[in-house]
């Protein structure tokens, strides 16, 4: 039952991606929502769904093709290999930067807890010495 709706939704997204004037807006939304990744990891894609799922894999392949189609979203011109590579490297650089910023925040957060724990231990040791 639900597989019919997923198939229809995926087919609708593919049709919208094939049109230039809707592609530039929809592609940003689909990338941000990780629709391709969610669909790829779903039980319908790997065949472990209890019922339905027939025809989902070919639709998913077609959707992935149109989502990754190498054209400029605003002009509709084909992108060269160097433009595709620079776009990919820019996305990788952004993600690495986000990961490093998150790691620095986590390290600062851990250091704050370690300092608080260390000062609390010192207070406990000092307090226990005073009572002896």
Key traits:
mainly alpha, 132 residues, 2 domains, 79% helix
Order of helices and strands: HHHHHH
Number of H/I helices: 6
Termini separation: 74 Å
Radius of gyration, Cα only, in angstroms? 25 Å
Helical/strand content category: mainly alpha
Large-scale geometry: flat
What about the largest sheet?
Answer: none
> What is the total number of structural domains?
2
Q: Mean of the pLDDT scores? A: 79
Low-confidence stretches: none
Beta strands, count: 0
Q: Helical proportion? A: over 70%
The portion of residues forming beta strands comes to under 5%
Question: Can you give me a brief rundown of this structure?
Answer:
79% of the residues lie in helices and 0% in strands. The chain has 132 residues and is an all-alpha fold. It has two domains: 1-79; 80-132.
Topology (SSEs and partners):
Layout: H1 2-17, H2 20-33, H3 35-41, H4 43-46, H5 56-67, H6 81-131
Helix pairs in contact: 1-5
Please characterize this protein's 3D structure:
- This protein is mainly α and 132 residues long.
- It has helices at residues 2-17, 20-33, 35-41, 43-46, 56-67, 81-131.
